[in-house]
Design brief:
By secondary structure, the chain is an alpha/beta fold. The protein contains 19 helices and eight strands. The chain starts with a helix and ends with a helix. It binds Double cubane cluster.
């Protein structure tokens, strides 16, 4: 990476602390990612993006800001990126995925707060994340209690707009979400000085749909018996989708998919035959949280799909592109976004339906239910999900874990036993 110290200084970053953060990432990445065998060539672009995560992309953001484009940070897949793009602003996902930020987060939050919230707040107040430092506005949302209260604290450090997300999916909730999108449009117009109209919103919708399509295309390769790409590589790509330039991301991911197509034709797999296929469901995995995928894929399993916000919840369902008036486009946005099934909603049967459908579609052998500690909504929803899976005889294991590696050995042992059981099930099914 080139020398970006002057740039970071201009962003009021704590350089000494930031050096410590940068020290750990390369070795961590080497161990988890670069050591994989037989990776697709197309992953080189994503390796490069990671190597420049605090460099080149930040430089691009700052250059855009010099040209009067605004940078807007968000923390949830309910925030409509289409609106941000329509106003020629840039959207970046800011959820924290490293425990490096926890000590700073704990200065203002209770220790027993979800690691994702703690890391996100810690990243801001420690002044070690150049994305936070480059944002003109942050957008929060009323999802879980931890996030809701965290926005109040974050607002002491930086401007934040909070979208009031309903917690149910009735007609009146849809109307309410449409109102919230309108308020968001006003906010973004005031910030950027750019009026949002039918034309630029249609372009924003098209662009973000295109990003969803390419992610869907990538996921399709995970339905094959012979998997041409590892689960952790796909996770990385999904994480990068939140902050890379969308047009470049679409182009590079399509290039990778072309290569995967050839791999499928040639029967190339990155896993041994009969490796248990795992569907992960649960809380999102913000970069650089690669822990669970890494443990699974180094313990004899292959991750074939994620029913998470860094997985299918991010890209499934397109926004209808046929709306010709602003009102219709806003309705289409509201319809698409309220189709996301986050555990913050009640009831949330749609998520159970999704898990059952994805399990089938991706031909999974078992499910790993992942929750971050202190995430009450996802932990509580486990009962409903497990009941539904038990009825269908689908094996599931619950893993609750944070970003630290202290419990990695214990998780590995549990997963190895789970995979062994899945393999036995498979053999029994074959001999029947
Ligand atoms: S749509 S999952 S991105 S809210 S893990 S902070 S829920 S205590 S991240 Fe989320 Fe939007 Fe829902 Fe997705 Fe709270 Fe749970 Fe922490 Fe969470």
């Amino acid at each position: 990476m080139a020398d970006y110290r002057e740039m970071w200084k201009s962003l009021d970053m704590d350089l000494e602390k930031h050096d410590k953060l940068c020290e750990v990432l390369p070795q961590f990445y080497e161990e988890i990612y670069l050591s994989q065998k037989n990776r697709p060539q197309g992953m080189n672009y994503f390796n490069f993006v990671v190597s420049e995560v605090h460099g080149l992309r930040i430089k691009e953001l700052l250059e855009s800001r010099k040209n009067n484009r605004k940078v807007i940070g968000s923390f949830c897949v309910y925030v409509p990126d289409e609106v941000i793009n329509a106003a020629d602003a840039i959207s970046v996902g800011l959820c924290g995925g490293s425990d490096f930020w926890h000590p700073d987060g704990e200065k203002v939050l209770p220790r027993n707060t979800c690691p994702l919230v703690k890391a996100s707040i810690g990243a801001k107040i420690s002044a070690t994340c150049p994305y936070f430092q480059s944002c003109d506005l942050l957008v929060g949302e009323t999802t879980c209690d931890g996030k809701k209260k965290a926005w109040e604290i974050l607002s002491e450090y930086t401007p934040i707009h909070v979208m009031d997300l309903p917690q149910m999916k009735r007609e009146k909730d849809n109307l309410h979400w449409q109102d919230e999108i309108k308020i968001f449009i006003d906010k973004i117009e005031n910030l950027t000085g750019n009026k949002i109209n039918e034309e630029n919103l249609a372009e924003g919708i098209k662009l973000i749909n295109e990003k969803r399509r390419v992610l869907k295309r990538l996921y399709e390769f995970r339905k094959f018996d012979k998997l041409p790409i590892s689960g952790k590589d796909v996770l990385l790509i999904s994480q990068i989708a939140f902050y890379d330039d969308p047009k470049r991301f679409i182009e590079k991911t399509n290039e990778l998919c072309d290569e995967l197509e050839k791999r499928v034709q040639n029967g190339i797999s990155v896993f041994e035959e009969n490796t248990p296929r795992i569907l992960i469901t649960g809380t999102p995995m913000a970069i650089p949280n690669w822990k669970l995928h890494h443990i699974i894929e180094s313990s004899g399993g292959a991750v074939v799909c994620e029913e998470t916000c860094t997985g299918t919840r991010y890209f499934e369902n397109l926004v209808d592109e046929n709306g010709k008036t602003l009102a219709k486009q806003i309705k289409a946005l509201s319809d698409r976004y309220l189709n996301i099934n986050c555990a913050c909603f009640t009831p949330n049967k749609g998520r159970i339906d999704d898990i059952l459908r994805l399990y089938k579609e991706y031909n999974a052998d078992g499910i790993v239910y992942f929750t971050l500690p202190f995430c009450t909504t996802y932990a509580t929803e486990f009962k409903k999900v497990k009941d539904a899976l038990d009825k269908k005889g689908i094996p599931v294991i619950m893993i609750e874990t944070d970003y630290g590696l202290q419990d990695a050995g214990q998780i590995k042992t549990r997963l190895e036993a789970f995979f062994e059981m899945l393999e036995t099930n498979k053999k029994v099914a074959v001999t029947k």
